[in-house]
Design brief:
4-stranded antiparallel sheet
């Protein structure tokens, strides 16, 4: 398949369209049952940007001199926020979808996924302004499957994702049509949403520490041993989350791998890694 190069909300369940016998081609009945969303970036090239719905910003014009982006992402994570971020600098743009406060898919002019997330951070460091636009959780889930390619559309009773066509796009949640949008693809294709969207991890070029392998020292092994005094002091300082992370390092997981498997925000692990190194519980390599 071809490679990519107001607060929006879903209607109440009672107004959602029933599962059609085949891919619908529009019409008056469909228009009366589900809302047609207005695209925020109708002329954008990246697939994700093309299908982002118009929404009123909750935060607008954030710039590096006044807002630490990692602190802002941590705030969104703690809030369990749904929506998308848009960074713009001159003619360059990057888009990141946030699901439950986690960055789950991203797109820029020539990149998707982790590389596009890195592009957003890079643009921000160069002076780009970032705005955040909230979305209904259902719409955010539908959009979470948009990557660099579309797949053959197969409508099933539990299909969640976007069905794009030359005549417009249809948003599905569990087999039900929840919205339409006039944005198009030159061919018919689908972007199935994952059951639970995975968190994007920053690429190695921007977060090399997260991809390193670390080894427990004798002190680190004592921290995992419940009968030692080191364990008691470690547990008092870092709690169960710290112990779980240390155990994962002992099992040869990198911080990036642990973040993906445990659904922990990567920016919460960086200070732990620094503290583990400083206290002599782990070493690199």
């Amino acid at each position: 398949m071809t490679e990519d190069h107001g607060r929006a909300g879903a209607p109440p369940p009672s107004r959602r369209a029933p599962l059609p016998p085949g891919p619908p081609e529009g019409g008056e009945e469909l228009a009366e049952l589900v809302p047609e969303l207005t695209p925020m970036f109708p002329n954008a090239a990246p697939f994700l940007a093309r299908f982002l719905p118009h929404a009123a910003p909750s935060h607008q014009g954030l710039i590096q001199h006044f807002c630490d982006l990692h602190a802002f992402l941590k705030y969104l994570h703690e809030e369990g926020w749904f929506g998308y971020l848009h960074a713009v600098l001159g003619d360059q743009s990057a888009y990141v979808l946030v699901f439950e406060g986690r960055t789950v898919t991203a797109a820029a002019s020539s990149a998707t996924g982790e590389q596009a997330l890195g592009e957003l951070l890079s643009l921000y460091e160069q002076g780009a302004a970032i705005s955040a636009y909230p979305l209904d959780a259902v719409l955010a889930h539908v959009l979470s499957g948009i990557g660099s390619r579309a797949w053959k559309f197969n409508l099933t009773e539990d299909f969640t994702g976007l069905h794009a066509r030359p005549t417009g796009a249809i948003f599905y949640a569990r087999g039900e049509i929840v919205a339409t949008m006039p944005s198009t693809l030159p061919y018919e294709g689908a972007f199935p949403a994952p059951l639970r969207p995975q968190t994007l991890i920053l690429p190695r070029s921007l977060a090399g520490w997260a991809h390193h392998q670390y080894t427990l020292t004798l002190r680190g092994r004592d921290a995992l041993n419940a009968i030692t005094s080191v364990h008691q002091s470690f547990r008092a300082q870092h709690g169960q989350p710290g112990l779980l992370f240390l155990q994962a390092i002992n099992e040869k997981l990198s911080p990036a791998e642990y973040a993906m498997r445990s659904d922990v925000a990567l920016h919460d692990l960086e200070p732990l890694v620094q503290d583990f190194l400083k206290s002599g519980c782990i070493r690199e390599g």
